[in-house]
Write a structure and sequence with these properties.
The complex is a heterodimer of chains A (166) and B (164).
Chain A lengths: L1 H16 L16 E3 L5 E3 L7 E7 L4 H17 L4 E7 L4 H10 L6 E3 L2 H6 L8 E5 L5 E6 L4 H16 L1
Parallel strand pairs in A: 3-4, 4-5
Antiparallel strand pairs in A: 1-2, 3-6, 6-7
Helix pairs in contact in A: 2-5
Chain B lengths: L2 H20 L1 H4 L17 E2 L1 H9 L7 E4 L3 H6 L1 E2 L3 E2 L6 H11 L8 E4 L11 H10 L5 E4 L5 H4 L7 E2 L3
Parallel strand pairs in B: 1-6, 2-4, 2-5, 5-6
Antiparallel strand pairs in B: 3-7
The chains are: A alpha/beta (166), B alpha/beta (164).
Chain lengths: 166, 164
């Protein structure tokens, strides 16, 4: 009994010390969430069930993020009719910074206001940029951390959209 | 209005003005372009493995560790024992950093880090390092985070904590 309690305590302690305890491995169901967009309207990930979702975590202070966003806007225009939905999630501490940035550089896709709890639900957003591809059934099919290879990402998106239309 | 309250408020304003006048570092305006991380000399860098070993060694004296990045990142995960100092690319963050170190001896061992994004894109550590140097601190190290805090610290199994 004592041994069981000791093992349980060790597991709990280990989990509490691990900064990325929540799983978001490829093949896992993406955690559903609801966050406000820039107009304050709540948006749920589940609202996009049936679409191929590119979920992009970014921030106004993140240079590589800002380089990617025009490309993502282009993809939303080009592949939106085929079922792609890009969703941007700002991880700025101050939502005003995200609003200012988007006012100067509008996107063709919705921008939501993220927070630490949302980051933790995805196993920790512990560096930007970070993007997930989520298939029409809500499963994570790819994860891109840091300066991603956008050509490779686009190839993957095209392949997944082709699968979706079959 | 309460007379005592007015006196306290006036004293606080006079105090702030005097501090700003006496210490130019506190009143320095934030540069328009953030100091790049690449401007930090190699001798002032500490690798994550080196810092982790230092923290895990019972005999080694522990530096003051300050996260100079964004609170959203700090709340999710930070180095065990690290304090939040505020983003180095914002004047409010630099002010908080200056206040935190105001009473420390100039030879205090301090490690700052961020890890928000790849090293060459970090807008925070260069500014924070420059501010501490400007204040005369002689034992400041910056943890070199090549990619991000998740990959270079958390996923290596080094000690972390959560919360604000």
């Amino acid at each position: 009994m004592k041994l069981t309690a000791h093992i349980a305590a060790t597991v709990i302690l280990g989990a509490s010390l691990c900064g990325a305890a929540d799983s978001t491995a490829i093949g896992d169901r993406a955690p559903d969430f609801s966050r406000p967009d820039l107009a304050g309207k709540p948006v749920r990930l589940a609202d996009y069930h049936g679409k191929l979702v590119l979920l992009n975590f970014w921030a106004s202070w993140c240079g590589p993020c800002l380089e990617e966003m025009p490309k993502f806007s282009g993809w939303q225009r080009e592949y939106g009719a085929q079922g792609l939905q890009v969703i941007g999630v700002s991880m700025d501490d101050d939502s005003a910074a995200a609003r200012r940035l988007i006012a100067r550089h509008p996107t063709t896709y919705p921008i939501l206001l993220g927070d630490a709890a949302l980051g933790e639900s995805f196993g920790g957003v512990l560096g930007l940029p970070l993007s997930y591809l989520i298939d029409p059934n809500g499963r994570i099919v790819a994860r891109y951390q840091g300066n991603g290879d956008l050509a490779k990402m686009e190839t993957k998106i095209k392949a997944l959209l082709a699968q979706r239309s079959r | 209005m309460n007379l005592q309250l007015i006196k306290k408020f006036t004293s606080a304003i006079v105090g702030c003005v005097l501090i700003g006048t006496a210490n130019p570092a506190l009143a320095a305006p934030k540069p328009a372009t953030p100091q790049p991380a690449a401007s930090i000399p190699a001798a002032s860098l500490i690798q994550p493995a080196e810092l982790a070993a230092l923290l895990q060694s019972p005999a080694a004296p522990k530096p003051l560790i300050l996260q100079v990045g964004f609170r959203t990142l700090y709340v999710q995960s930070h180095i065990s024992g690290a304090e939040y100092a505020g983003p180095g690319n914002e004047e409010s963050g630099l002010q908080r950093l200056r206040e935190r170190v105001a009473t420390l001896p100039k030879d205090a061992a301090i490690v700052i880090y961020c890890g928000c994004c790849p090293w060459n894109h970090c807008p925070n550590v260069g500014e924070a390092f420059s501010a501490l140097q400007g204040l005369g601190f002689t034992h400041v190290k910056v943890m070199y985070v090549a990619e991000n805090f998740g990959d270079d610290w958390v996923n290596k199994g080094y000690p972390v904590a959560k919360g604000s």
